[in-house]
Each structure stands twice: as C-alpha cells, then as structure tokens.
Amino acid sequence: MAQHSIKSLFEIFTVALKLGVTSFGGPVAHLGYFHNEYVIKRKWIDEKSYADLVALCQFLPGPASSQVGIGIGVTRGGILGGILAFLGFTLPSVIALILFVQLLTFSDIGSSGWIHGLKIVAVAVVAHAVMGMAQKLAPDLKRKAIVLFAICATLLWSTVLTQISIIVLSGLLGYLIYKNHSDQGEETAHFPLSKKLGLACIILYLILLVILPILREITQLEWIALFDSFYRSGSLVFGGGHVVLPLLEREFVPTGWLSKEAFLAGYGATQAVPGPLFTFAAYIGAVIHGWKGGMLATIAIFLPAFLLILGTLPFWHELRKNPILKGALIGVNAAVVGILIAAFYDPIWTSSILTPKDFAFAAILFSMLAFWKLPPWVIVLTGAIGGIFLEFV
User: Which residue spans traverse the membrane (predicted)?
Assistant: First the structure.
C-alpha cells in the first residue's frame, strides 16, 4: 500500500512538473492545460468538480491556476499530494527566474520570436478549453445570458472589484433561476482533509496578515519586511498573476528595493517562462537577496493561496451540495466561462494575434490540439519553432 502511495505521489509530481515546463500563456491558459491533462486525459477529476473548483479558486484571492492545481493534487494524494502538485508546477519557473538574475541578462526577452510563438500557443489552448467548458457549463439560454453578461462586464468595466462583483452577481442570479434545479452530474472528487485542519489554515492566514506588518514595524528587519510585502501581495489579489504584477511594482520600485529597469527586465522574463506569473516574486527576491531571497519571496507570495485553498476544501464538498449554493454555483460557473472568454480576448488575443500570419498559425495549432489530438508539448514545441519562422516570413 505504501509503495502504491509513493508511486501515486511521484505521478502527481511528475505530471505537475510536465505542466510546469510546458504551460505557457498565463493563468487562463493554465486552466486550459489543466483541463486537458487532468480532466480529459487522466480523468483525475470529473468535469463538474473541476468547474466547481475553478469557480471556488476564482472567488479566492491568489493565483487561481495554482490553487486549482493544489486542489487536484489534494484529491489524488491528500495534503502531500497538494504540496507536490504545487512544487511540480511552480519550481521550473522559479529556478529559471533565479538563474536569469544570476546571469544578469537584462535583455529584451519579451520580443523574441519564440516567445511570440508561445503566446500564439496560448491562444489555441485557451480557445480549445473555453469551447469545451462553455458546452458543459452554459448549455441553455439562461446560462448563455450569464456568460454574455460576464464577458461584457469584464471587458467594459475594468477595475479591481470587477471579477469578484461579477461572480457575486452571477451567483445571486444562479440561485434565483436554478434554486430548484436537479443536477444529475456525477461528482467523483473528494478532498481528504479534516475540518480542523481547514479551520487552522484559515486562522493562520488571518493571523499572518495582521501580525506581519506589526513585526515589520517593531523589528525593522529587512527579511521580515520582504516576507510581509510578498505575503500581503499574495493575500489581497483577485484575478491572478496579471493583477499582482503592478501591485509588486508599487511595493518594490518606489521603495528603492528594485530599479524600474530591473523590474521591466524581470517582467519580460516572467512572461517568457512557463508556470504561474506569481513566480515573478522569485525574480524580485533574487535581485534583492540572491537565491535565498528568491526562495523566501516564492514561499511568502504563495503561502496565502496555499492556506486559503487548504482552508476551504474541507468544507467545499458539503457546501456545494447545499440547495442554495448549488443554484448559485450554476450561475458562478457560467460567469467563469464569460470571464475566461474575456481574458481570452484581452490580454491573450490582443497581445498575440497581431497579423493574419499569426491568426493562420493559431488556427493550425488549434487544429493540432482539437482535431488531431496531439499532446500539449508538441503544440508548445511547434509554437516556439513556428514563432521563430514567423519573424522571417
């Protein structure tokens, strides 16, 4: 049994590591890669449970895609499975960004041809994932109307509160429309965590949020100040990695910890590596205090996300069976599809499809993924090589 357990945990880590090496394109693209790998290919989690988990993680502050990955790891291997899924997905980009700092190659990496090719890969991956999710989560006209509302609101009302407001309103609409809805969809996901552990994680999250700024003022120690800055950034961000980047700029550039040039170089490097955008923290920490600073920054910025997902999962299975919440979740899941479609347009489409050649290449990559069913790593490799060729065509 122990041997089977070790084998299962190793599999969780290696699958997450493969995703960590090949998942380019930001949080929305990551959800597409996860859907393809965990739901369609490996069937580690069913479609409905995946959609509910994505909805929960959109509602929580922090990096949504990383939290979804942790949640799936927990379903397979408990808390250790969640940790291994997180490490596999996160370490490749953390190591790459710390090495980038050590090499001090402050070049304009974001304009490279292969980077542009990887952005086009993200277009194909997200389009495929959104189409699949839309078919299952918005099958009727009422849910399609919620999707449309979420698309329009996300694109036309771009503020910090937009996403959370859309999710709350859609949940209310879902409750009003679907409170008597009977769902026959089978749920296979179980989160083997105790409620005591969940409560302890939420309490620790809140204690650290309050006590770190106090310790920062009392001790005046730079390491505590650094940890506090990253922890608060990770605690108070809704909407994923793209939102945390300007927050980190305000936290570290005006204070003199980081120059504007170094920040922009790191921003370009972060866009170039796979995995979560929150690993930008590893770059900033490494610039300030070498590899030790990079590791501390990574732990600090991801710790709130980890505590929140482990804190809510033990209660999630019961909550989503509640008749009131079931209706609300139907609305929220439809809204998440709308938010993903809006993010597919901006920033993914607007920053990737710049010419007819880009669109043609995206159509080829989409066909490779959706119709020929080629594995994602083939799509990524083709995208990188094709991006180089596009520079000369």
Answer: 79-101, 113-134, 146-177, 197-218, 230-248, 268-288, 295-316, 328-348, 360-390
Nearest one of 316, 293, 393, 300 to 74, comparing CA atoms? 316
Model confidence over 181-233: pLDDT tens digits? 665 555 556 777 889 999 999 999 999 999 999 999 999 899 999 999 999 88
Q: CA-CA distance, 35 to 46, in Å (whole number)?
A: 10
What is the per-residue burial (b if ≥16 Cβ within 10 Å, else e) of 23-39?
bbbbbbbbbbbbbbbbb
**Structure confidence by residue, pLDDT tens digits, 42-62:** 999 988 889 889 888 887 888
Dihedral of alpha carbons 240, 245, 250, 255, sign? positive
Structure tokens at 72: 């799936």
User: Distance of alpha carbon 5 from its chain centroid, rounded?
Assistant: 27
Task: Let me know if 186 is exposed, middle or buried by CB neighbors in 10 A (0-12, 13-18, 19+).
Answer: exposed
Assigned token pair, 82: 């969640």
CA distance 84 to 73: 7
- Of 315, 321, 234, the closest CA to residue 71 belongs to 315
Residue by residue, DSSP assigns 169-215 as: HHHHHHHHHHTTPPP-----------HHHHHHHHHHHHHHHHHHHHH
Query: Does the reported pTM lie above 0.85?
Result: no
Query: Is the alpha carbon torsion for 289, 295, 298, 302 positive or negative?
Result: negative
Instruction: Provide the 8-state DSSP code for 38.
Output: I
DSSP 348: I
Rounded distance between C-alpha atoms, residue 86 and residue 102, angstroms:
24
